[in-house]
Write a sequence for this structure.
């Protein structure tokens, strides 16, 4: 079945960087975009950006532009997200999720989702 | 594109009919999806493209609307429906509404 499995929880110091991995399985990896979503404790969902694994390009939310990078590995069917210059406000659960329809399709939605990775920024 | 949900929270009883509204800052046709999220769980899609019920989602959930105004309706609230609901647009990149928490009255 289609599945996204994320790497484990991270604890980082302010100013550091964090890298989270999202392993995809059960479908043709290069056919579907992968998105990342942030959720701070007790807060709503916030779109971080997306990547097309087939060509490795990415679009980032303005809020995270310059601080976030997505990298795809087609042989390992993984997408990594690296977030730099961490602050206490980056303490959150990060989810990877996939577009339900192939790249270029209209009216897309997110399905499935990874289990989430908690990033804690603490001094 | 900004999405504004109303209300931000509501209290309702089992069996009640509940409607949540999502308004977009510009027209988005029917590029609007609805998700349910329970504590410490990933969201799951309920409705896609404004009015299409995702497979395995109970028929008491329905969606309507187009352009800038959309509704999610739960026809008869069940105990497992107490959760937070989000709208999300895919017309231009992606954004989420701020969420609506449905609580037990």
């Amino acid at each position: 079945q289609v599945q996204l499995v994320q790497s484990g929880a991270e604890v980082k110091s302010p100013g550091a960087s964090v890298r989270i991995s999202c392993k995809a399985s059960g479908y043709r990896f290069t056919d579907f975009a992968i998105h990342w979503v942030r959720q701070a404790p007790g807060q709503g969902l916030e779109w971080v950006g997306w990547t097309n694994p087939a060509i490795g390009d990415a679009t980032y939310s303005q809020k995270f532009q310059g601080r976030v990078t997505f990298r795809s590995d087609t042989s390992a069917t993984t997408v990594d997200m690296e977030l730099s210059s961490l602050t206490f406000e980056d303490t959150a659960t990060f989810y990877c999720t996939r577009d339900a329809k192939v790249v270029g399709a209209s009216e897309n939605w997110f399905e499935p989702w990874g289990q989430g990775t908690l990033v804690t920024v603490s001094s | 594109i900004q999405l504004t949900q109303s209300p931000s929270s509501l209290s309702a009883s089992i069996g009640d009919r509940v409607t949540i509204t999502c308004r977009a800052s510009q027209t988005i046709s029917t590029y609007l999806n609805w998700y349910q999220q329970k504590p410490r769980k990933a969201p799951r899609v309920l409705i896609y493209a404004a009015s299409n019920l995702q497979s395995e989602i109970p028929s008491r959930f329905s969606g309507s609307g187009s352009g800038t105004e959309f509704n999610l309706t739960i026809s008869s609230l069940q105990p497992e429906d107490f959760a937070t609901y989000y709208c999300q647009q895919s017309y231009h990149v992606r954004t989420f509404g701020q969420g609506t928490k449905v609580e037990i009255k």
